[in-house]
Amino acid sequence: MATTHHTRMLIIGSGPAGLSAAIYGARAGMQPIVVQGLQPGGQLTITTDVENYPGFRDVIQGPWLMEEMQAQAEHVGTRMIWDIISGMDLSQRPFRLTADSGDEFFAETLVIATGAQARWLGLESESALQGKGVSACATCDGFFYRGKKVVVIGGGNTAVEEALYLTNHSQDVTLIHRRDSLRAERILQERLFEHPHIKVLWNKTVDRFVGGGEPEVLTGLDLRDTVTGDISHIPTDGAFVAIGHKPATEVFAGHLPMDSEGYLLVEQGSTRTSIPGVFAAGDVTDKVYRQAVTAAGMGCMAALDAERYLAEAEFTAAQAARAAAQ
């Protein structure tokens, strides 16, 4: 049977941004509800070793970190609901949202933290070796490949930036691109071509990610030449797929402004969207940093923005009511 929920703060998404917003919102007495979405815990639940989240000197596991965040959010008063938001009316407060289960949510404030997912090549061998040498985030995982041979797959800004970043850890970086020219900005291309530790393989696509050893890890790539069709092999310790990210914003189309890539637009320096009382945090609006710690920070910002917004709105409403009664 469908249920109706009322809350001062509804949070959509349960990754670092959503759970951080929940922790701060609960401590501010907002009685938040988190609708967890398709992937409770976000992308960290499919990340094994995490070495760059502050507060842990030893490597920790992504799923464990998200379990702890959720437990903390629940401990301070957050309600977790496993469901998927499928429709909404943001034209007035309280905002009305509907879920796949048929449940309805009425919220005084809304925090959107649905995240973004890396685009993958879609190869079976790629998914089999994710976390075993295949990654989509050089700033997250590059440290594990110090002094090793790595490759980056892609030709846009993200790929070039990842290749340049990886030179902090490796002196053998190869960029693999399916065309004979890059799409990245000219200044990035110049830095790439001038770097002594980066080489480029043109007109190549990945035919297969090759694994070996026990336990199995990435050992190389089989590449297909896009001009001749010839297959070649390149040994490598790490492969970074850098062909972009896709924010989870489809359900908000027509309700909130987005950029050309589908990221939600917020006011500079805040988490406020164009609709008062609606806030966005984490990778759903951040296409620059895309880190767990920055997402968590934005979740904190969203909760503080929401609490201040609601306090001001309630104060203004109370003043108006007193004036009308006089």
Structure explained in plain terms:
The protein is of the alpha/beta class. The chain contains 7 helices and 19 strands. It has helices spanning 16-27, 62-75, 124-128, 138-141, 157-166, 186-194, 292-325, and strands at residues 4-12, 33-35, 49-50, 60-61, 79-81, 85-89, 95-99, 104-112, 116-118, 134-135, 149-153, 172-176, 198-201, 204-212, 217-225, 231-235, 238-241, 245-247, 278-280. Strands 1, 2, 5, 6, 7, 8 and 19 form a 7-stranded mixed sheet that branches. It has a 5-stranded parallel sheet with strand order 10-17-11-12-13. A 3-stranded antiparallel sheet has the order 14-15-16. A hairpin with a 5-residue loop joins β15 (217-225) and β16. α1 runs parallel beside α7 (292-325). The longest helix has 34 residues, at 292-325. It is elongated and about 80 Å long. The model has no long low-confidence stretch (mean pLDDT 94).
